[in-house]
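FAQ
Q: What does a multi-component entry look like?
A: The components come first, one per line:
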Amino acid sequence: MTEIPADNSPRRLSNAYQNWYRFSRNPTAVIGAAIVVIVILAAILAPWITPYPEHVGAVVNFRARHLPPSAEYWFGTDNVGRDIFTRTIFGLRISLLLALVVLGTAVPVGTVLGLLAGYFGGWVEIVIMRITDIALAIPPLVMALAVAAVLSPDLINSMLAIAALWWTWHTRLIYSITRQIRTQEFIEAAETLGASKFHILIREILPNCVSALAVKTSLDCGFVILVGASLSFLGLGIQPPTPDLGTMVASGSAFLPDSWWESVLPGCAILVVALGFNLLGDGLRDLFDVQEVR
Amino acid sequence: MSAPMLEIVGLTKTFPVRDGLGRSAGAVRAVDNVTFSIPRGQVYGLAGESGSGKSTIARMIMGLTPPTAGDILLDGENITGRTGTRAYGRKVQMVFQNPGSSLNPRRTVAQSIAVPLDAHGHPRRERAGRIAELLDMVQLPADFAERYPHELSGGQKQRVAIARALAVAPKLLVLDEPTSALDVSVQARVIDLLVDLGRQLDLTFLFISHDLSLMRNFAQQVGVLYLGQIVETGPTAEVFTDPQHDYTRLLLASVPVISAEEEAMRPKIPLIDGEIPTAEKLLALRQAAKP
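Then the predicted structure of the entire assembly, as tokens:
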């Protein structure tokens, strides 16, 4: 058996290249990824790329109130004369932080519970999945309302409220995939080969969940940002003067329709961010579906 | 020689049947009082059509399904109830029917072969060397280690599965239809490989298949399984040239032949008139055949 060359590095390189090629040929994924990258860079570099970084705080400049978009103030100014473009870019930081913290806790928790319920079945499954069903029955906004009422409306508590319910979706996703994979021969093979339960869960089942998890998580980023903005809009989230997109839409809505830019432009920012993550998620799904079929 | 490598005594498996409301509605006897033994270094062929209980026997031997009754003796030691443990896995390994699903699609060949090595405490430093040795044993190039299953052909995947099963140097290899998912041209080469490995490593095989022509060349002893019972057993040559049971004759008569020589070997029996044999008919035949 010598027909295969001993050195396989060119072939492995072409494998990575194939994936990149397929990704680059998928306009949805590329546009989504571009938006996401630009948004993340803008958020990180906010203090250096915004024209008026000092407008993030409680700055008041009454001579510049309600100015429409211009070369000086790209997105116009708000009711106390602060630059809306600067505050929108800084608002992205809060949105991304929210998504990062919520998904950073919800995804691992949901994944572990889903793996356990799906693999072990029996009582473990009944307990985990019924708790999941109960948590799913609570509307997130009601939960946030309750948390804000009991504790206080701020960033940490809105994160807490969203994360406390968000893991359920990941639990159900991973549970259904695990159930399906558990019956495959390679899991039985691993069992007969003496592999531990930990090995089977982490090394055999989890890698088969990664593509679904990546798609779900990137779609979720958009949704979490949207829910966070809704909470802020209702006054249950981040409090002024911290710049947050939802809060800005809410405070600007008082001056509609004359000073439309004060709520519409931050609203557009929410739209673009959510759209970017959704496009990326859809693009990843197409990409992984192709791989599954292959 | 001492005790047989594997001895199966009165092995039985019944599956409860439940009705739509989950109430017990009787039981299916998938494996019914099966007894056979495999001498050290030999190949025992277990033949039968789908649903005859072949795979259930393999699963009970591997500890994937607990038996309802009966004993499994390995190397003279009764290991019923201890199948599936690590100490046991060192002696018995299995090659599954479909290499497409018995290898994890997200793990490279090396990662798959490393599973039994790690589980049985093989030293990490020697791991790469052992994997290369195993790949060489199944006649695959060493650079296959970094490949994923989707980059391999069916025959190559099955060779990887064989290498993985041999990783901890078992004494008994259970082959559950190891070639049925493969192309006909590849089947013979995999069987040749198994014969070679068996000789080199002094392996004992339990070869489960519905393919009698493969069994004729590979197994020294055969058992014919029908509806969960062994209806005929004996040295391959005897069973194939002078089948005693009607079901065996029926199975042999349905083996496709390509040469006149093989046609001559085929038993001439009056088949049941032009109909697909049903379980009831064959049971009636079996009753009739009893003295």
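Q: Is there any commentary attached?
A: Sometimes. For this entry: The two ends of chain B are 35 Å apart (CA to CA).
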